[in-house]
Amino acid sequence: MAVYGKIAEAESHAHGRPVEEVHFHEVGAMDAVADITAFCLMMHELAPDKIVVSPINVGFGNVRCAHGILPVPAPATAWILRGIPVYAGRVEGELCTPTGAAILAHFAQEFGSLPRMKVSRIGIGCGKKEFDQANCVRAMLGETPDSEETILELSCNLDDMSPEAVGFAMEELLAAGAVDVFTIPVTMKKSRPGLLLTCMCRESLREKILGLMFHHTTTLGIRESICNRYILDRSIRTIETPAGPVRIKEAAGWGTSREKYEYEDLARIARDREISLAGAARIADQSRER
Question: In whole angstroms, what is the distance from residue 152 CA to residue 142 CA?
Fold first, then answer.
């Protein structure tokens, strides 16, 4: 229903009519219903922890449908794929339909290149149309190493911004989903003191973060480095203490584990009881020992 909801929204926008008045045309045919239902059942059975999809090849040219001849990608497909990396490729024809676009948009958690993984199963589905290249979709199921991911480092040099403006830019980048943002003092051309601003983000946020860096800083150019990032799996649990709830941040993986009280919770207890942070931590320790 969620997949069909995306298609209904796209058709509603394409026709300029409320969702309740949308007619599904081709995607209402039984083969489309079977495609979507089978895919959802497959995802339920596989239950993967994460789904990564490559940028989507939509093709180019024109396609004949219930509305006549339309440009590729069709209006509904283009609407569904907003915010998703796509490209036209070299094949003339419709390579991504509204059904396929809605399925990928609903299930994909990340769009990018194939992650480092140990592949255990490979599935291939072939289309009926003949193109100059293989008309197929391939899926790989496997295991990634303990919490490894590809991450981008976007950096630029700044020598003409106030500290307040730099701080504001960092806050905006973090609010947009950046993994981390930091500055390093550097010496630039003409011996000018400046800052190296570095923003770490996932590939799926590349365009958004680049836009924000250009918008909120005075830089004329941004450098990109692609890195492998190794992290511990993190989780949060809460304990009850006489002074109120305290969250515990836990991290594990790569043969190690550690935990730490949430600073804001300890600070609240310390202020309320007019004690030190160490004293607040002891209250949490005693509650865990009971």
Answer: 23
